[in-house]
Write a structure and sequence with these properties.
Number of domains of chain A: 1
Structural class of chain A: alpha/beta
CATH topology of chain A: Rossmann fold
Largest sheet of chain A: 8 strands, mixed
Structural class of chain B: alpha/beta
Strand order of the largest sheet of chain B: 2-1-3-4-10-9-8-6
Number of helices of chain A: 6
CATH superfamily of chain A: Class I glutamine amidotransferase (GATase) domain
CATH superfamily of chain B: Class I glutamine amidotransferase (GATase) domain
Oligomer: heterodimer
Strand order of the largest sheet of chain A: 2-1-3-4-12-11-10-6
Number of domains of chain B: 1
Shape of chain A: globular
CATH architecture of chain B: 3-Layer(aba) Sandwich
Helix content of chain A: 10-25%
Number of strands of chain A: 12
Order of helices and strands of chain A: EHHEHEHHEEEEEEEEEH
Strand content of chain A: 15-25%
Shape of chain B: globular
Distance between the termini of chain B: 10 Å
Distance between the termini of chain A: 22 Å
Largest interface: A-B, 26 and 21 residues
Strand content of chain B: 15-25%
């Protein structure tokens, strides 16, 4: 089966699940960040980015990335934006000091990425909160907000459509580090990849 | 006299935030973009900081240049996630499972202790400001000075003035990553005190 999805690896120690999980390894190809090219993007439907990405390099490739989305591609963005490398992005806005309750995740829109996941299990490990999100990559007005912290006021996960494609933004650590147990991390990553490779309903 | 400091900037959000924090940005004279490392002249700075999680695969092609810089008396500081054994001389590291949770235990023990209390670093920093978690431990070469020990006898932060004519400061701590990710206030306190110490150190 031809792999339609690329994980853009930024660090040598990354990509364990994409190498080892039997489902993820069948559909995700691992590519070094600096090998990103128009030829690669022409051949795939989904580009998965990590919180460790060289955003300066992505910014230098902004036009390429925007054209990929416009043509029907899906980009998954994770981490905190410092250098807005797509039109829909502006720099990360830290939430500052929040109470434990304010760190709780609220699901605003049902979404298959979060299917089977209890929102209270996100962002809280051993009573410590803020692992999933500690602020927001502020969404554009026409984005669809999926999850928030601070009782609906700070957007964490959101989707944005452009041309025939779309973007999924997660304003926190890589989604496959959300939970303590690997099984839970694999489940949410499978959800994410499964959502991304399905046909874009707006295409 | 101040040291001229260059810090590696891998283009990540956390490097961007941490290196440009106005509390210490003026102490970092140059930011060297990691993929363009071959374009920078190592010889005109006193200190090179390999910031946390700078990709060792991009540092290792410059191994000879780092060695030359050290042989000219330079200082290199390597933080966690840079795998210094790949690109610096005489490094023996121990991969460890990071315990993020020690401070939640009934009798919290960081398992760290100051190994060389008379070292000038401790005029600037206390153990508390160097304690959150660590990702790597090291077996320093003979003659090097461990600054922070783990209770298993390995080092979490050491200084090596023996292996080259310069100075290596090697640590398993990751302050740039956490401060730049707005997470872990101890890392902010570390940078607030460590960078002025590095900037003013009279030992170089």
């Amino acid at each position: 089966m031809k792999k339609q999805c690329v994980f853009l690896k930024a660090l040598p120690t990354q990509s364990k699940y994409f190498r080892e999980d039997k489902v993820l390894s069948q559909c995700v190809k691992i590519l070094d960040q600096y090998k990103l090219s128009n030829e690669i993007l022409k051949d795939i439907k989904v580009l998965i980015l990590t919180m460790h990405q060289d955003q300066r390099h992505l910014l230098n490739n902004k036009q390429l990335l925007m054209e990929f989305i416009q043509a029907g591609g899906t980009i998954i963005i994770q981490g905190q934006i410092a250098m807005p490398f797509l039109d829909c992005l502006i720099p990360f806005n830290p939430a500052g000091q929040l109470t434990l309750e304010e760190y709780e995740i609220s699901f605003i829109q049902p979404h298959s990425v979060f299917q089977g996941i209890n929102p209270l299990s996100l962002n809280c490990r051993r009573g410590v909160r803020g692992f999933y999100a500690r602020g927001s990559n502020p969404p554009p007005e026409d984005a669809t907000i999926l999850t928030t912290i601070k009782r609906g006021t700070i957007s964490v996960d959101w989707e944005w459509s452009y041309g025939l494609g779309r973007v999924f933004v997660h304003s926190g650590n890589d989604i496959w580090t959300s939970f303590k147990d690997s099984e839970d991390n694999i489940d949410i990553t499978r959800n994410l990849v499964s959502w991304a490779i399905q046909e874009n309903p707006e295409k | 006299m101040s040291n001229l400091i260059a810090a590696i900037d891998a283009g990540t959000s956390y490097h961007h935030v941490a290196l440009n924090d106005e509390r210490w940005a003026h102490m970092i004279d140059e930011r060297w973009y990691l993929p363009d490392l071959d374009q920078y002249d190592f010889s005109h700075v006193d200190v090179i900081i390999a910031t946390c999680r700078s990709n060792p695969d991009l540092l290792s092609p410059h191994k000879v240049r780092f060695q030359e810089f050290l042989d000219e008396g330079g200082t290199i500081v390597a933080f966690a996630g840079t795998d210094p054994a790949q690109w610096l001389p005489n490094i023996e590291s121990k991969s460890v499972s990071t315990n993020y949770w020690w401070w939640l235990e009934a009798d919290p023990q960081s398992e760290l202790e100051i190994a060389s209390p008379k070292h000038p670093l401790f005029d600037a920093l206390s153990l508390t400001e160097m304690t959150w978690h660590h990702h790597t431990r090291f077996i320093p070469p003979e003659g090097a000075v461990s600054l922070i020990n783990h209770n298993d006898g390995s080092s979490v932060f050491y200084e090596d003035k023996i292996s080259t004519r310069g100075r290596l400061l090697i640590t398993g701590l990751d302050p740039f990553f956490h401060h730049g990710s707005y997470f872990m206030p101890a890392t902010t306190r570390f940078l607030e005190k460590f960078l002025p110490w590095l900037n003013d150190s009279s030992e170089v």
